[in-house]
Design a protein that fits this description.
With 339 residues, this protein is of the alpha/beta class. 51% of the residues lie in helices and 14% in strands. The radius of gyration is 20 Å and the shape is globular. It starts with a strand and ends in a 17-residue tail after the last helix.
Amino acid sequence: MAKVGMIGAGSWGIALTVLLHNNGHDITVWSALKDEIDMLRREHEHKDKLPGVKLADDIVFTTELADAVNGKDIQVLAVPSSFTRATAHSMRDYVSDGQIIVNVAKGIEEATLMTLSQVIEDEIPQADVAVLSGPSHAEEVGKCIPTTIVVGAGTKRTAEYIQTIFMSDVFRVYTSPDVLGIELGAALKNVVALAAGIADGLGYGDNTKAALITRGITEIARLGMEMGGKFETFCGLSGIGDLIVTCASMHSRNRRAGILIGQGKTMEEAMAEVKMVVEGVFSAKAAMRLAEKYGVELPIIEQVNEILFDGKPAAAAVRDLMIRDKKIEIAHDEEWGEC
């Protein structure tokens, strides 16, 4: 049995709390919100974020960060990406040398263009930071629906330890050394999912969705490989796997926000209606800055930015994607004849 600190009590943190408790681990859940902790103590259920998923009586809930960090074998950092740095900074003095922190949020810090594991390492240099990602909606994990995911870490030993902690008969975990590729796939798929939702909101069909998914993963892989990620990562669970589930499911807050934008709502109106953090909005600008830095074209993500921040009509963005200059999909060799 491991002692686990769950830092964040949103839908994903609560779903992973259920999983880890079912695996026999000792869980302490932290939130900065006193009302949230009071509700969890009283109801043993997150009525707002994950209704219907019950939490065991022996799970500890606290607003004291020290209680959730001190003496724990592993930390799971499950706060929204925009709060990752501030939370890591607050944790720093409680984290011991070599203590494992598993980041499960998805995003890129706009101000620095750091991935979230890089942000955590910047704030807590003594920690052993890993990432967990893949096609895994909290609503399904919390109900023990079979799910497969990947853990990335700096060493095989750390990755295999985390794999053992999380693995169960309903939660299969693979390992990978490509932390950067995993994080880029996780962050950028949210932007493409916004595009998929926008297409749905416009009333487009399966053809459009398939195009966005396939060309979207091409954009993600193009940038990710230029930054040092591995091609295989973008073909795997945290790449095409996570992209498919996020573009296709109504569990996806990014897709739901995109649908509302496609129907004519502003970004702010869509985020307010979804009532959850829409990570793709926070990653979209960072993605374009990375594209400029590395000299990579990201036409779908570029159009999403123009819709979100420049007020471009969604239908006009789709049209501009369709009438771009003619391109090849696969480079041909000299044997491919002209006739």
